[in-house]
Amino acid sequence: MKRWDDRIMVTALRRVMWDQDLIEEIIDVFEMCSAIMEGHSHTEAGTEAPPTIERLGQLVERAKAIITKAKPDKPNPT
Question: What is the pTM of this model?
Answer without folding.
Answer: 0.61
